[in-house]
Amino acid sequence: MAGLLYLGAANGMCLLKCFSKGKKEDGKPFTHKDFPYLIGMVVLDILAPVFLMIAISRSSAESVSLLNNFEIVATSLIALLLFKEKISPRLGFAIFLITVASLLLSLSDISSLSFSTYSLLAILACCCWGLENNCTRMLSQSAPSKIVIIKGFGSGTGSVIVSLICGEHLTLSPFIPLALLLGFIAYGLSVYTYVYAQRYIGAARTSAFYALAPFIGAFLSIAIFPKIPSALFVISFMIMAAGAYLAAEKERKET
After folding, report:
1. Which residues contact 206 (CB under 8 A, 6 or more apart)?
2. Percentage, residues of the chain above pLDDT 70
3. Backbone angles phi, psi at 24, to 5 degrees
4. Which end of the chain has fewer CB atoms < 10 Å from its terminal CB, N or C?
5. With 50 as the cut, is the pLDDT of residue 69 above it?
6. Hey, which residues does 109 pair with through a beta bridge?
7. What CA–CA distance (Å, rounded) separates 5 from 173?
8. N-term to C-term CA, the chain
9. Which of 147, 132, 129, 136 is nearest to 192 (CA)?
10. Spatial separation of the C-alpha atoms in residues 19 and 169, rounded to whole Å
11. Which of 103, 37, 90, 69 is nearest to 207 (CA)?
12. How far is CA 230 from CA 35, 50, 58, 74, 104, in A?
């Protein structure tokens, strides 16, 4: 599934470029200094979806979706520690709230404070994407479509190879074209606009605005798979919503 999503993103972007011939895209060519970031981007984008797919197959979709907000924490802290981006006190408090909510969502038994392995895998996926976001930030002056195509074909092919090594078999199915289409919309177009945003406002700020996505995923999950959320989920949702609001509102004012 992870491989098909990324391959759908790459193929869709190639088709988009074919239909938009004559329109020059802004962006600098890649140099030898970009190769470590290109490799890091591809490798991390192989690992992250694999962790996420394992997590979502054994956990509730709404909880895993909400846990994706931890990507803000990972992206911002890596941007601060490794790439020296500035983080305001307000964004720092937002990161604290999101971390607390993520830990609550990861609890499988609150009475014994035991953590769900699959929730921790979702958080690990977010950490991979957090580092990948910063690698992509270093490439954001290049053409976004090129980044999507490299990311898509590289990570997609790598994910398919991992699945084959793990013993999975790819069979002909009507769902394959749908997965490719989903990959183009949810990964391809998403990454394309994400890279443009990083170019102008940085990795940490872009990640803060991106905080809306997990809440949409959580609401859709509850709507598609109707059930009453647990009290722990509701509490975590409220704390995380406050953290996401603080992060996004601060960045909106600054821009």
Report:
1. 133, 137, 194, 197, 198
2. 90
3. -80, 135
4. C
5. yes
6. 114
7. 15
8. 37
9. 147
10. 34
11. 69
12. 45, 27, 17, 26, 12
